[in-house]
Design goal:
By secondary structure, the chain is α/β, with parallel strands linked by helices. It is 43% helix and 22% strand. Strand 2 and strand 3 form a beta hairpin.
Length: 288
């Protein structure tokens, strides 16, 4: 019996030792994990501290640079604008450009936002391109390129006093000239100066007008009006009253052929009243 009790106690002691060792191991692992978490927290804290300090340094540097820049440039009387050199290749007068750009002598050269000046001038419908630059110490130069009107939009009787350039940009009444050809029959409504025409018929008409301005066409084709109300062709009226139905396909080829026909007709001492160029060949002609 004693032998068996000792053996029992010995087994129990061994079991208890194992439990104690496991407990110690768990405590050791927990302690290590706690130390790792603390170390990680310290690292994160150190990184955040360095980041905050660095951001503060950058902010101070930028603030200092701004203050120094203001003192040296935008608040320096040496750079007060004394001359505004303004030029345009069109109708805009320097005083108008100055007003659109909100500029005047006495402003600081570096206090003027050049991008804002460009945006303000580019918003004017007739303006195509703008160049703005500083000339130290006291001069601001502005050069404006204007859009060139290519045609009048609408009938004169409709009270639609707008023009359009070759790029399809709508111009105001000041760009209207009676010498400009007119484009009528457009379906697009609500056009305003500064908008770009989306009507495909108007785009086709502008392409025809551009072609007819070239030396090879301008001798015979002087356009008075282009009616774009028909979906498949343009009705072109020439300066002498000739009526031309021009298909919207292969307009370059058709206009070249039209010039040949008009030259041949003139050589024969005749004049065309109307011609149908919506067909591929053998164009029907009516003579005056």
């Amino acid at each position: 019996m004693w032998y068996r009790d000792d053996d029992k106690y010995s087994t129990r002691g061994l079991f208890n030792n194992r439990r104690e060792n496991q407990r110690n191991t768990i405590l050791l692992v927990s302690a290590r994990m706690s130390d790792q978490r603390k170390e990680r927290a310290h690292r994160i804290g150190a990184i955040l501290l360095v980041t905050v300090v660095f951001a503060g340094i950058v902010w101070v540097v930028l603030l200092g640079a701004k203050i120094i820049g203001q003192a040296m440039f935008s608040e320096n009387d040496r750079f007060i604008i004394k001359r505004l050199n303004i030029s345009s290749d069109g109708k805009l007068q320097p005083e108008h450009i100055r007003e659109y750009a909100h500029l005047d002598e006495g402003m600081n050269l570096f206090a003027v936002d050049l991008d804002q000046v460009r945006d303000d001038l580019a918003s004017v419908p007739i303006v195509s391109a703008v160049s703005v630059c500083r000339k130290l110490p006291d001069t601001l130069e502005i050069t404006v390129s204007e859009r060139i009107p290519a045609a009048r939009l609408g009938e004169e009787s409709t009270g639609y006093p707008l023009a359009v350039d070759r790029g399809g940009f709508v111009l105001g009444p000041t760009s209207i000239s009676q010498q400009l050809p007119s484009i009528t029959g457009l379906q697009e409504k609500g056009l305003r100066p500064g908008a770009q025409v989306g009507d495909q018929g108007v785009k086709n008409a502008l392409h025809v007008l551009e072609l007819c301005d070239s030396p090879s066409f301008s001798r015979f084709l002087k356009i008075k009006n282009v009616d774009v109300s028909h979906s498949e062709y343009l009705e072109v009226r020439l300066l002498r009253g000739e009526r031309v139905l021009l298909s919207r396909e292969d307009m370059d080829v058709k206009l070249t052929k039209l010039c040949e026909i008009m030259k041949h007709t003139a050589d024969m001492g005749q004049a065309i009243a109307a011609i149908d160029m919506t067909v591929e060949k053998n164009f029907p002609v009516q003579y005056q």
